[in-house]
Design brief:
The complex is a heterodimer of chains A (521) and B (418).
Chain A: H1 16-23, H2 31-34, H3 60-77, E1 78-79, H4 121-137, E2 142-152, E3 159-168, E4 177-183, H5 184-198, H6 213-221, H7 226-248, H8 250-253, H9 256-263, E5 275-276, H10 278-287, H11 289-298, H12 303-356, H13 360-439, H14 442-518
Antiparallel strand pairs in A: 1-5, 2-3, 3-4
Helix pairs in contact in A: 3-10, 6-7, 10-13, 12-13, 13-14
Chain B: H1 21-32, E1 44-53, E2 58-66, E3 75-81, H2 82-94, H3 113-124, H4 131-165, H5 173-180, H6 192-214, H7 220-270, H8 275-345, H9 349-417
Antiparallel strand pairs in B: 1-2, 2-3
Keywords (chain B): Protein transport, Transport
Family (chain B): Belongs to the sorting nexin family.
Protein name (chain B): Sorting nexin
Chain lengths: 521, 418
């Protein structure tokens, strides 16, 4: 992930990145540029932008530190469910990739990347332009659908395969319409890769749907009841929303892993699907609480700091409010389902009553009432469906998204901490040098001087990283807020329209019944 | 629960529900004639003009207007409590002369326990919610309390009106005492012993009922009625219970709208983006639509659940009538057998003859009035169902249209803004 490369500006209209790229000053490019370019491209040597630390041609120890950090991160946040053998296979072929599998601390910088046999640089140029244009016009011409859940296999090894269909006019894809089959762990694998690449540099990566052992077991075992079909449908819809959110993100859209996920027919199995669970992220955030305190004391009062503090507070409030609303909406879903069941029961009872009523006209009217109530029961069911899939799921998606946002703020904290630590170490090294000078040990002095140079570089790097992540987060938050407003407005309006439909139907039914009731003589 | 001195049900309309006065008056009028199609009769008109809810009892002001000579004045009022209504009802049931009539079912005991508990819980939880939420919920619970109160008043009134409309029962002396005597009737509620006696009496009656109903009736009309009533009663019971549950679910959903509205309001006031106006508008929508949904639930309760509950009780009263007739038939047949035996032995024949004649008369009298009562019952029932089903459909339509209007207006504003 390019530390200094900003993601394509949304609606900015300035292809700044492009200019920089052409200047050739920077050795660092964004993810966009990297994998597309073959080694022989006229572009400046691209570093694997996935690795943030690669930006510094600095010494290895930096990476080690970072990797360790990342390992820590994942150690706390992941839920490991090993599906097969515990052997971890690198997921993306031979490519030097960052710690999706944070195993080897020795990285991952290679000045060149093996091209992944992707499109030639020419096409890359165009597609980059294209994306920017589209970004400026805010039209991401890509549509994702997740459909046709299909059970594959038997017993405990069974799984659901979903069809992922992509329709797009973006030229970075080889076709304009294509579909592949994916299973749930593939989605988790995708999220895991994206998170490991982008989260720690400040990009808000949409979280994947949660795992559910109970739900899946029922499906595996083959319980063909309504609750397992509901579970599968809930999951399918969640996966669709997840992908749609991910492709809306201009930076993520250009990620090769995402493209591979959407396009290639064969995807290597994500064996250890380490998902950043909500709980894991919360743990990270809580641990960072101390860092916040330290930070706010030490940092200068500046607009930037205040902005971040304010935003964090705002997201905290938003989180609370959304949770509260979510609880109420879930209660509504529950009661609506209850209402539907009770209406159905009443309809049957009214029919029975109509049967035993010996006054003919009244008997008929009661039967009609029973029919009306049965239809109304259907209506309630559909409304409960809308309550849930539109309103309730929107809220739970955003609650998880905000957790991701908090995670990103937390990364910034860690970044700052690293910078601080580097400064402290530098100080110590300087003191050590001074001591050596006094003690007059020339060889040690040289070593000390070397170390000082090393740490000076690290301090600089730390500062750069911190500024970069701060910049990225500000952009991301702006984008996120815009998306959030759009999302909420769209979905809530759709939901209200569902309420309108229900009322219209109700009117139809009761209007049909009224003359029947009046006909009782 | 605080000792509340209100609410009173004056001749004027009740406040507390925010619909216009005409809706309330329709409801009030409806309540009186809710389940019985009564002709207002200048000779004797009874209503409950006022009611007072105290800590553990309700005091009803029974107001009578009559041109009958039996009363000292043409118009007068007394205060009665629930137990006195029960006393009156029981006196009818125990009166042998009324064996051939459907005794109007007694009104159920006023039960504010659930409502009081909720108000108490609300008071305890006051600290944990915002002032606005608290006020909202308090208003809601108070409206609920009021609704229950109005219902119990209506049910007591219906009982009196049924009695007043009945050609024979209206002449009952106890009834007149009930209406006129302006002191406390000093009818204590039945004590434990008497309640136990009642319980056993009912047990015996139902056991008897089984035996007696095994006897096939010669008369087709009564045979049909018996089969019909047994089945009808059970099904009305079932329908009444299911209707209750349905109404309650509806109310729960309406309550959820309330909370959703509050949460949206909080979101709207705190959001930093331009979506806050949006949230506030939607919050307003939920508040308004909730009121309509609550009203739908209340109307369903009134027009459907209450109707079914009333006819549950009336059909029971009709069954009781049939039982009494069967009982008298058995007595008649036993007297016949006794007469035959006496004639065979030629001993106490006159006594047996008199006894048999009395039984015969009693049976025929009951049969005759029972037939009419059952025919009237059907007429009343059909009329009541018609009235309530029509009103139910009209109200459902009214509310659905109101809701639709609300939603469409809101959507127009929201879409216009975006």
């Amino acid at each position: 992930m390019a530390a200094e490369r900003e993601p394509p500006p949304l609606g900015d209209g300035k292809p700044t990145d492009f200019e920089d790229l052409e200047d050739g000053e920077d050795l660092f490019t964004s993810t966009v540029s990297t994998l597309e370019s073959s080694p022989s491209s006229p572009e400046p040597a691209s570093l694997p932008a996935e690795d943030i630390s690669a930006n510094s041609n600095g010494p290895k120890p930096t990476e080690v530190v970072l990797d360790d950090d990342r390992e820590d991160l994942f150690a706390e946040a992941t839920e490991e469910v090993s599906l097969d053998s515990p052997e971890r296979e690198p997921i993306l072929s031979s490519e030097p990739s960052p710690a999706v599998t944070p195993v080897t601390p020795t990285t991952l910088i290679a000045p060149r990347i093996e091209s992944k046999s992707m499109s030639a640089p020419v096409i890359f140029d165009r597609s980059r332009e294209e994306i920017e244009e589209e970004a400026n016009g805010d039209i991401f011409d890509i549509e994702i659908g997740v459909s046709d859940p299909e059970k594959v296999g038997d017993g405990m090894n069974a799984y659901m395969a979903y069809r992922v269909t992509t329709k797009t006019s973006l030229s970075m894809f080889s076709k304009s319409e294509f579909s592949v089959k994916r299973r749930f762990s593939d989605f988790l694998g995708l999220h895991s890769k994206l998170a490991s690449k982008y989260l720690h540099v400040g990009y808000i990566v949409p979280p994947a749907p949660e795992k559910s052992i109970v739900g899946m077991t029922k499906v595996k075992v083959g319980k063909e009841d309504s609750s397992s079909t509901e579970f599968v449908e809930k999951r399918r819809a969640a996966l669709e929303r997840y992908l749609q959110r991910t492709v809306k993100h201009p930076t993520l859209l250009q990620d090769p892993d995402l493209r591979q996920f959407l396009e290639s027919s064969e995807l290597p199995r994500a064996v250890n699907t380490q998902a950043l669970s909500g709980a894991g992220i919360l743990r990270m955030v809580n641990k960072a609480a101390d860092a916040v305190n330290k930070m706010t004391i030490k940092m200068n009062e500046s607009d930037a700091v205040r902005w971040f503090e304010e935003k964090q507070q705002q997201f905290e409030n938003l989180d609370q409010q959304l949770r509260k609303l979510h609880v109420s909406v879930e209660a509504l879903v529950c009661h609506r389902k209850e209402l539907s069941a009770n209406t159905a029961a009443f309809a049957k009872s009214a029919a029975m009553l109509g049967n035993s009523e010996d006054h003919t006209a009244l008997s008929r009217a009661l039967s009609q009432l029973a029919e009306v109530e049965e239809k109304i029961d259907q209506l309630h069911q559909e409304q409960a469906f809308a309550d849930f899939y539109m309103f309730s799921e929107l809220l739970s998606d955003y609650i998880r998204l905000i957790a991701a946002v908090k995670g990103v703020f937390d990364h910034r904290m860690k970044c700052w901490q690293k910078w601080e630590d580097a400064q402290i170490t530098l100080l110590k090294k300087r003191e050590a040098e001074a001591k050596m000078m006094v003690a007059n040990k020339p060889d040690k002095i040289q070593q000390a001087k070397n170390e000082i140079r090393e740490w000076e570089a690290k301090v600089q790097q730390g500062e750069r990283d911190f500024e970069q992540i701060s910049k990225t987060i500000r952009k991301e938050v702006g984008r996120f807020e815009k998306e959030r407003v759009k999302d909420f407005k769209t979905v809530i309006i759709k939901y209200l329209e569902s309420l309108v439909q229900t009322q219209q139907q109700l009117i139809k039914y009761w209007e049909a019944f009224l003359p029947e009731a009046k006909a009782i003589a | 629960m605080r000792a509340c001195a209100g609410p009173r049900l004056g001749a004027a309309m009740m406040e507390g529900l925010d619909d216009g006065p005409d809706f309330l008056s329709e409801e009030d009028r409806g309540l009186k004639a809710i389940n019985v199609d009564l002709q207002s009769d200048a000779a004797l008109q009874v209503d409950i003009s006022d009611a007072l809810s105290e800590r553990d009892k309700v005091k009803f002001t029974v107001h009578t207007k009559s041109s009958l000579p039996n009363f000292k004045q043409n118009e007068f009022s007394v205060v009665r409590q629930h137990e006195e209504f029960i006393w009156l009802h029981d006196s009818f049931v125990e009166n042998e002369d009324y064996a051939g009539y459907i005794i109007p079912p007694a009104p159920p005991r006023p039960d504010f326990d659930a409502s009081r508990e909720k108000l108490q819980k609300l008071g305890e939880g006051e600290g944990s919610m915002t002032k606005e939420e608290f006020t909202k919920m308090k208003q809601e619970l108070e409206a609920e309390y009021l609704a229950i109160f109005k219902k119990t008043v209506a049910m007591h009134e219906v009982f009196l009106c049924r009695v007043a409309a009945h050609p024979i029962l209206r002449r009952d002396l106890n009834f007149h005492v009930f209406l006129e005597y302006n002191q406390d009737l000093s009818v204590r509620g039945k004590n434990k012993k008497e309640k136990l006696e009642d319980f056993f009496k009912n047990m015996v009656k139902s056991a008897d009922g089984v035996i007696v109903s095994g006897v096939k009736d010669v008369d087709d009309f009564f045979e049909h009625e018996r089969t019909f009533l047994l089945e009808y009663h059970n099904r009305v019971k079932d329908a009444s219970a299911k209707s209750d549950r349905m109404t309650r679910s509806h109310k729960s959903a309406a309550d959820d709208y309330n909370r959703i509205g509050s949460s949206l309001y909080a979101l709207g006031t705190q959001d930093s983006t331009d979506i806050c106006k949006f949230f506030l508008k939607v919050s307003e929508l939920f508040d308004k639509t909730r009121k309509i949904e609550a009203r739908v639930s209340a109307d369903e309760d009134l027009k459907l659940s209450d109707l079914l509950k009333y006819y549950l009780r009336e059909s029971q009263a009709a069954k009781d009538l049939l039982y009494r007739r069967s009982r008298s038939l058995v007595d008649y047949e036993n007297a016949n057998k006794a007469l035959d035996k006496a004639r065979a032995k030629n001993k106490d024949v006159l006594q047996a003859e008199t006894s048999q004649q009395l039984c015969c008369q009693k049976f025929e009298k009951i049969s005759e009035s029972a037939k009419q009562e059952l025919i009237d019952f059907k007429t009343r029932r059909v009329a009541a169902f018609r009235k309530n089903l029509v009103e139910l459909a009209e109200l459902e339509l009214k509310h659905a249209k109101g809701n639709l209007q609300l939603l469409q207006n809101c959507l127009a504003v929201l879409n216009g803004d975006t």
